[in-house]
Predict the 3D structure of the following.
Amino acid sequence: MVNLRSLFGKIERNTYYYIAKTERNMKGTSLGEFEELCLLAVAVLQDDAYGVSIKEEIDHRTRRNTTISTIHSTLIRLERKGFLKSKMGGATDERGGRAKRLFEITAFGKKAINEARILRNNMWKDIPDLLWKGGPL
């Protein structure tokens, strides 16, 4: 990453943060398969999208046994890319007074999963019927 402080000299702290965050978000905007699953789980769970619920949703739908650390690292990466945003929910007795970090899909995240869906659907539709009917390739 370019050292923005030296590039722009002395600039206001908030301006530096905004530019650095925007530059970081512009990198790596493609989605991997597991990132896509995490985004879809957040979209499905809506207001109840936090680490454990996201893990349970993905495990149930994919019949996988993911780890919570994999979920958390993916959610952090998606937030850094700008696909998700998070906030701390209220503390609950069932969690020993600890708050949950709740995730929400951003407009950029919605655009990304929609583009992934369109790409996949177009590719599926372009597979020749002959392939699925068992004929020679």
